[in-house]
Amino acid sequence: MKRYISGNKGFTLVEVLVVMVIVLVVGSIIIGVLFAAARNSNKASSLDVVKRNGNYAIEQMAKTIRYAAKFDGVGIADENGEDINTIYETNCVLPIITPAPTPTIYRFVKVTKSDGDQVKYSCLDKTFESPTAGRPHVQEVSEENLNTNVKTNLVDRSVVDIVSCSITCQQETIVSPPTLTISMTLQKKLTSGLTENQSAIPFQTSVTFRNY
Q: Whose CA is closest to 42, among 148, 179, 190?
């Protein structure tokens, strides 16, 4: 019995420490993998939210503009995001000069639908986020029915930020149908310290009036 006990002294302190180190290393690796997977999942979810908002806004605007019965013009905005002119520009022919002029950046477009309703699209980004003279913050991509004064936001501002948004208009000749290019960049609104969830996604479409 004495020989048996003396031959089974158990683990040494060094062996115990080695096992503890191995357990800590393996545990750290597992936690790191799980944390990275969670971050990737959150990022994918954030990108999906941004894509759904951007695609819906672009498709809604393009569909209405393409099949509109009348092009009522494009307008620019002042420093508060308000219409600068009550009369919208309907002539988008650029002068033939060298170098070619830079297309004007518009923030609004008005069209008349086949049912007679006049619709105004607003394309305002972070440029207009700082209010002046007590005006509220302006940042929206919206569709407003001017006949009923009903405005619909095409982007959910509670979850998405509008980094940039612009409209350009081009025509080959005065009798050619205008082509509008709508560009916007959206990102997930920051609700945590994980800035990678804010990946910005650009959206763009060019649409030509079919009933011009």
A: 190
Spatial separation of the C-alpha atoms in residues 78 and 127, rounded to whole Å: 11
Q: Whole-prediction pTM value?
A: 0.74
The torsion of the CA quartet 108, 145, 175, 208, rounded to 10 degrees, works out to 70
pLDDT in tens, 56-83: 999 999 999 999 999 999 999 988 888 8
Task: Kindly report, residue by residue over 1-39, the tens digit of the pLDDT.
Answer: 455 445 555 668 777 788 888 888 887 787 777 666 656
